[in-house]
Design goal:
- The chain is α/β, with parallel strands linked by helices.
- Helix content is 34%, strand content 20%.
- The protein contains 17 helices and 19 strands.
- It has helices at 3-15, 65-70, 93-102, 108-111, 130-151, 163-166, 170-186, 204-216, 218-222, 233-245, 247-250, 322-334, 346-352, 369-381, 436-447, 456-463, 477-480, and strands spanning 44-47, 52-56, 89-92, 113-115, 158-160, 193-198, 224-230, 256-260, 274-279, 288-292, 299-306, 312-317, 365-367, 385-392, 406-411, 414-418, 429-431, 451-455, 485-490.
- The strands form four sheets. Strands 1, 2, 3, 10, 11, 12 and 13 form a seven-stranded antiparallel sheet that branches.
- Helix 7 (170-186) packs across helix 8 (204-216).
- It is globular, with a radius of gyration of 23 Å.
- Mean pLDDT is 88; it is low at 1-7 and 13-49.
- It binds S-adenosylmethionine.
- S-adenosylmethionine binds next to helix 6 and strand 7.
- It catalyses: L-arginyl-[protein] + 2 S-adenosyl-L-methionine = N(omega),N(omega)'-dimethyl-L-arginyl-[protein] + 2 S-adenosyl-L-homocysteine + 2 H(+).
Length: 491
C-alpha cells in the first residue's frame, strides 16, 4: 500500500476514536468473538431548520449547512463506475455502506477481503481440547497469511473465517443432510434438486455439498444443480478455480453454474422449486440509520455528507425515504411480538420524560433495508424458493446504537475497530447482527411463506454428525463456537 493511502487510512482511523485493546490472540480470531474496550466520543449536535440535523464526531464541528443544500445526493449505484472515492456529495447510510463495501474499484470486497481456508480439514477427533484447537487454528492462520503475503503483500488484508471453512467438510455435510432430507420429503421424484447459493466465498460449501450428495445418494446427485450468485469477481474466479483444480472437484463441473452478479441485479424468473442458501451474507447488507425524537417519537433518517476535503459529517433528516419508510411500516404491521426500540420500552419511556433524564434524540437504530429488498428479489424472481439462511444474531463491541454494526479494519495483522461506519471507504469491514425475530416476520410478510428460526447450535444438533467435530476431551467447537448465530428456514 502506498504511503498517501496509508496516511489517509490512519487519518481516518484516528480521527474517529479507535477502540482500545487492539491485539487479539488467535483464540479470538472469530468475527463473532472479538473483544475490546471502546472509548466513545460524545456526539456533537447542531440542529437547523427544514428538518436537517447534523452530527460531527469530533471536537470542532464544522457548519455544513451550505454544503448540505448544494451537494447532490448520490447512491452506491451512481458511484459504481467511479474510480475515486466521492467528495462533495451526500448519501443515505445504506448507500454509503454499500459503496464502501461493494464499489468495484475501491470497495472492501474488491480489494482486501479474503476468506481464510485452513488447507487440510481439521482432524478434531485427534485434537486434545478446545484450547488446542485454538492454537492450531492460530498456526494455520499465520501460515495462510504468510503464503498470501509471499505472492501479494497486503498490510491491510481483511481475513474472514466462517464455519463453512473451519468445519469443512462437516458443516457442508450438515447443510447437505438438511437439503436432501427436505428434497426427498417434498419434491422428489417430481423435481430436480436445485440449490442456489448467494455469496459462496471460496466455493467450499458447494464442493462439500456436492461431494456429500454424490457419495451418499448418486441418484439424487445426478439430478442436482448448484448455482452460485456471487457479487465479487475475485471470489467468483476463486470458486471456479477451486471447482476445477482437482480431479474430484472437476467431476462436479456439469452440476455447477457460477453467476458473477449481485443478487440485487438479479432479473431472471426461476419458476422451479429450489433451495436458496445465504450463509453469512446478510451481515454485510446495507442498513439505514434511524433515530427518534424522544418527545414526539418520530423517526429521522441518517446519512453522511462528504465535504471537499473528504471529511465525513453525519446528518439526520426528518424526511424518511420510501425504502426506510416501507421497512418501518412492514415491521410495524408484521411483527408478532414487540420489537426493541432505541427509545427503550414503553415503561422506560415514561421515566425518560422525567426532566433530569430528558434527551433530545435516541441513539440510532440500524434497520435492515437491503435485507428487506433481498426478500423482494426472492418473492419476485424465486417464488418457489426455500430459504436456508444463517447469520450472527448478536455481535459484541459494535458501534453505538441498536442493531449497530461492528466496524473494523486490519493493519499489519491486527484488528482495529472504530466507532462509526463513516470511515475511509474500502478499508473497513462493516457487519451487522440480524434480529431474527424481526426479519422472520418481515420475510413472512414479503413472501407469504412460513418459516422456522433456530439457533445454529440447535440446527447443528439436529442435522450434524456431531461426533465428527468432537475433540478428545469431548468438547465440540462446532456447537460452541457459533453461539451467537441463528438460522432462518422456509418450511
Ligand atoms: C462472509 S462471506 C461468506 C461466504 C460463505 N457463504 C461462507 O460461509 O464461507 C460473504 C459472501 O457473500 C458475497 N456477497 C455479499 N453481498 C452479495 C450480494 N449482494 N450478492 C451476491 N453475493 C454477495 C461475498 O462476496 C462473499 O462471497
Amino acid at each position: 500500500m502506498d504511503s498517501p493511502i496509508l496516511s489517509q487510512l490512519f487519518r481516518q482511523l484516528f480521527r474517529h476514536p479507535a477502540c482500545q485493546g487492539l491485539r487479539q490472540p488467535p483464540a479470538s480470531l472469530g468475527r463473532q468473538t472479538r473483544s475490546f474496550l471502546t472509548r466513545r466520543t460524545p456526539n456533537k449536535r447542531k440542529s437547523q431548520d427544514n428538518g436537517m440535523l447534523w452530527t460531527k464526531r469530533d471536537d470542532y464541528p464544522k457548519n455544513i449547512d451550505k454544503e448540505y443544500w448544494s451537494y447532490p445526493t448520490v447512491t452506491a449505484k451512481d458511484l459504481r463506475n467511479r474510480r475515486e472515492r466521492p467528495r462533495q456529495v451526500k448519501m443515505l447510510t445504506r448507500e454509503f455502506i454499500d459503496d464502501s463495501l461493494y464499489n468495484p474499484h475501491y470497495g472492501y470486497f474488491s480489494k482486501h477481503a479474503t476468506i481464510f481456508s485452513p488447507g487440510e480439514p481439521f482432524d478434531f477427533n485427534h485434537i486434545e481440547d478446545g484450547p488446542a484447537f485454538h492454537r492450531l487454528l492460530g498456526d494455520r492462520y499465520t501460515q495462510f497469511e504468510d503464503q498470501l503475503d509471499a505472492v501479494n503483500p497486503d498490510i491491510a488484508r481483511q481475513l474472514w473465517h466462517t464455519p463453512t471453512e473451519l468445519f469443512r467438510p462437516y458443516y457442508g455435510e450438515t447443510i447437505a443432510r438438511y437439503l436432501v432430507s427436505n428434497y426427498k420429503l417434498t419434491l422428489y421424484p417430481y423435481h430436480d434438486l436445485i440449490i442456489y447459493e448467494m455469496g459462496a466465498g471460496n466455493g467450499t460449501m458447494m464442493l462439500n455439498i456436492l461431494d456429500f450428495i454424490r457419495d451418499t445418494d448418486y441418484e439424487v446427485y445426478q439430478r442436482t444443480k448448484f448455482k452460485i450468485i456471487e457479487i465479487s469477481p475475485a471470489l467468483a474466479d476463486l470458486q471456479y478455480k477451486n471447482l476445477t483444480e482437482t480431479l474430484d472437484a472437476k467431476g462436479h463441473r456439469d452440476h455447477v453454474e457460477i453467476i458473477n452478479r449481485s443478487i440485487f441485479d438479479w432479473d431472471t424468473y426461476v419458476h422451479s422449486p429450489c433451495f436458496f442458501l445465504a450463509l453469512e451474507v446478510f451481515d454485510n447488507f446495507g442498513h439505514d440509520a434511524v433515530r427518534y425524537d424522544c418527545r414526539s417519537e418520530l423517526p429521522q433518517q441518517g446519512g453522511v455528507l462528504i465535504d471537499a476535503d473528504g471529511e465525513f459529517h453525519e446528518y439526520f433528516n426528518t424526511q424518511i425515504d420510501p425504502v426506510a419508510a416501507r421497512f418501518l411500516r412492514v415491521r410495524q404491521a408484521a411483527s408478532r411480538r414487540p420489537f426493541p426500540s432505541p427509545l427503550g420500552s414503553r415503561a422506560l419511556r415514561s421515566l425518560r420524560f422525567a426532566p433530569s433524564l430528558r434527551k433530545v434524540h435516541s441513539l440510532p437504530e440500524y434497520i435492515p433495508t437491503r435485507l428487506m429488498q433481498f426478500f423482494d428479489v426472492l418473492n419476485q424472481y424465486f417464488p418457489a424458493h426455500r430459504l436456508v439462511a444463517s447469520d450472527f444474531s448478536s455481535l459484541p463491541d459494535a458501534v453505538p446504537g441498536l442493531n449497530a454494526p461492528v466496524v473494523q479494519t486490519r493493519y499489519q495483522r491486527q484488528t482495529v475497530p472504530v466507532t462509526t461506519p463513516f470511515v475511509h471507504q474500502g478499508y473497513f469491514d462493516i457487519f451487522f447482527p440480524t434480529d431474527f425475530n424481526v426479519i422472520e416476520d418481515v420475510y413472512r410478510a414479503v413472501t407469504g411463506k412460513l418459516t422456522q428460526v433456530m439457533t445454529h447450535e440447535d440446527f447443528v444438533h439436529r442435522w450434524a454428525y456431531i461426533e465428527d467435530t468432537e475433540t478428545r476431551n469431548g468438547e465440540n467447537p462446532l456447537l460452541t463456537w457459533y453461539k451467537n448465530a441463528s438460522m432462518l428456514m422456509t418450511v
